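User: Can you model how zinc ion sits in this protein?
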Amino acid sequence: MELYSGLVIRSTGGQNSVKLDNTDRVIECSIRGKIRLKGIRSTNPIVVGDHVKVQIEENAEQGVIVSIDERRNYIIRRSINLSKESHILASNIDQVFLVATISEPTTTLMFIDRVLITAEAYSIPAKIIFNKVDLCTGPLLDKLAEYVTTYEEIGYKCLITSSTKGIGIEELNAEMSNKISMFTGHSGVGKSSLINTIEPGLTLKVGAISDAHSQGKHTTTFASMLELNNGGYVVDTPGIRAFGLLEIDREELSHYFPEIFAKSDNCKFHNCSHIHEPGCKVIEAVENGEIPFSRYDNYATIYLDKDDEKYRTDDYA
Ligand SMILES: Nc1nc2c(ncn2[C@@H]2O[C@H](COP(=O)(O)OP(=O)(O)O)[C@@H](O)[C@H]2O)c(=O)[nH]1
Ligand SMILES: [Mg+2]
Ligand SMILES: [Zn+2]
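Assistant: Here's the modeled complex, given as structure tokens:
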């Protein structure tokens, strides 16, 4: 009996595919009795992205997962019923690519900020891909440059791509190599096209409408990981609104705007909301141009709006 380490690349109701480290071997595994991570109430004990220890009998085709390594991060599916149990979709994600477009469709700064907030809350590094740059001319190019400057200054890496013209694809491929990535963004921005361009063998359906809205209440959908030739993986969550769904307490909101959080230490009041208080260093930094106005404006809008349902981010399609 030997113990192996591996990565869970698929997990559907009790059946788990584990890719053993340093080999190409994928083995189907069951789960030993009660291995549950402390402190997490979830309907599923094992998720895609988990690093696990597997016991395999000599020459056996099947393994048993005997333990799970601690998760660096994980994303949860918003509960669709009143039960308190959550469904974890994936863990140990290295980065999320927010695919945005200046036109066809227009991605708003509010949408971008909502996704970035969620990524911060999940502790998953976010990078922004501005796709369809082949459609950007004149004022649209100025807008693109402005967006890139805004987000790069905060510290979010930005990539400029066109999957149809092959722009920025090599850079994206390099960013993705040997990492576990997720893609999010509005339907139609080119997520499937970009992944297909990176990995032509995958042939994800382009132009396919997400089934997120037609998804029945009782359907349980599971994530899987698409393995890439660059040594990386893409977490695929078909038809699930995977990202941008966290309910965030307004008191914590500023923690997820890195540039606002950085200034908030020196506010006169330690519980400053950065909305109206005297001696607020955040407001001062906005006035000085050190914090982009659009970012502050979105912070204030989300902070002040009790019903932020309408700012929910779109599905991953
Ligand atoms: N002009 C242009 N069209 C693109 C580009 N990338 C994708 N598209 C088109 O945009 C549409 C939606 O693409 P798709 O990959 O399905 O988007 P998804 O919903 O985000 O997966 C398709 O008609 C693609 O051919 C691009 O870089 N430039
Ligand atoms: Mg798609
Ligand atoms: Zn303040």
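A couple of observations from the model: Confidence is low (pLDDT under 50) at residues 211-219, 313-317. The chain has three domains: 2-71, 90-236, 250-311.
User: Helpful, thanks.
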